[in-house]
Amino acid sequence: MDHFDYVNGAMQVEQVPLDVIADAVGTPVYVYSTATLERHVSVFREGLNALDNPLIAFAVKANPNAAVLATLATLGLGADVVSGGELLRAIAAGIPADRIVFSGVGKTAQEMRLALEKGIYQFNLESEPEAEMLSEVALSMGTRAAVAYRINPDVDAGTHAKISTGKSENKFGIPYDRAIESYAAARDLPGLDVQGVAVHIGSQLTDLAPLEAAFTKVGALIEKLRAAGHDIRTADLGGGLGVPYDPSQPLPPSPAAYGAMVCRVTQGWPVRLMFEPGRVIVGNAGALLSRVVRVKQGAQAPFVIVDAAMNDLMRPSLYDAWHDIRAVKPVGARETANVVGPVCETGDTFAMHRDMDVVQAGDLVAFMTAGAYGATMAGTYNSRPLTPEVLVSGDQWAVVRARPPIEALIEADIIPNWVGN
């Protein structure tokens, strides 16, 4: 459920009409709903009610906007970060360091030092060389790092290949069959406190079976590790629960169904469970608002050219992802059309042969379920400024990231003194 609804024939978010935001801020613009964020956190937490003190660490990569993170911090969420920048963003937004988990395959020594200085809860290690580097960094600082190894269980998540992370050919984690050996070596590293096991098999999962298979393997591994004398106290089960993008497709599993599966599979595990939800928290809490530039008749269907582009919302170009496209003020008629942006790439396409509201030049459209992996992946291709972001709460709204002027983009370039001389 989200809080984007039609009232008197026009879409609004909570109590704010979208055309009011578009007129004031310009388009394209991302719009987020506080009420939806609050509801999604509540529903996810309720799904885990039977667990004892789980750590819910929001995947910052899904949406790192400071206002969004601050909202989630007030709701008690921690953070899953994959860079030093995300770590600093999370802390600046009010998320305590002892609720932060550092994941990612390419942590540098500088990032490790920063995380140790801040006092994060756990590092999720992805390789033996990374463990050795972290041990050296920790020893140089006179401390020990709390760690878990991320296990690659060789489970097909059944999602898009570019967001599948738990198969043997993926770059993430250590192979399941090498885990016992890797943990034994980590125990001998003096700068590490080996406390946990981690797993994350992919994103936008629409079936619980792969998750259950991965979690079952984690449970068996915990038993083996504890039998070998390891004090395993945490198990990070990652994230990946899908959200509904296409209303014509079956709904993904609910957080309640997910929580019930987790409780059943992990019953009796002597550990604190950790979770890294991202998309399921913020996906449906956001929309990308765009204005139609013109409608151009194509050979087979009209092209609806909008002022948003692939640099604003990359998912359709990168993943062939589906976003529902709705007119902000629908006229009641439908047509089959192609929705494209102004960037000089054929890949700058949001939808082909889409059954959608009839729109014309000047009309507003909303790309739904754009709160996750939207603004965070935006760029400045074709010298287009980054997209602004707006947060709504009831009848209040605020710009939480302004659109930078194109002059700022130009001024960031430095022309060497030998050019033109």
TrEMBL record:
Binding-site residues, substrate: 279, 315, 319, 345, 373
Domain Orn/DAP/Arg decarboxylase 2 N-terminal: 46-282
Biological pathway: Amino-acid biosynthesis; L-lysine biosynthesis via DAP pathway; L-lysine from DL-2,6-diaminopimelate: step 1/1
PROSITE patterns: ODR_DC_2_1
Residue(s) carrying N6-(pyridoxal phosphate)lysine: 61
GO terms (BP aspect): lysine biosynthetic process via diaminopimelate
EC main group: lyase
Secreted as UniProt keyword: no
Molecular function terms, GO-annotated: diaminopimelate decarboxylase activity; pyridoxal phosphate binding
InterPro entries noted in UniProt: Ala_racemase/Decarboxylase_C, DAP_deCOOHase_LysA, De-COase2_C, De-COase2_N, De-COase2_pyr-phos_BS, Orn/DAP/Arg_de-COase, PLP-binding_barrel
Superkingdom, taxonomy of origin: Bacteria
Active site, UniProt feature: 344
Keywords: Amino-acid biosynthesis, Decarboxylase, Lyase, Lysine biosynthesis, Pyridoxal phosphate
Similarity comment: Belongs to the Orn/Lys/Arg decarboxylase class-II family. LysA subfamily.
Assembly behavior: Homodimer.
Protein name per its UniProtKB record: Diaminopimelate decarboxylase
Taxon lineage: Bacteria, Pseudomonadati, Pseudomonadota, Alphaproteobacteria, Sphingomonadales
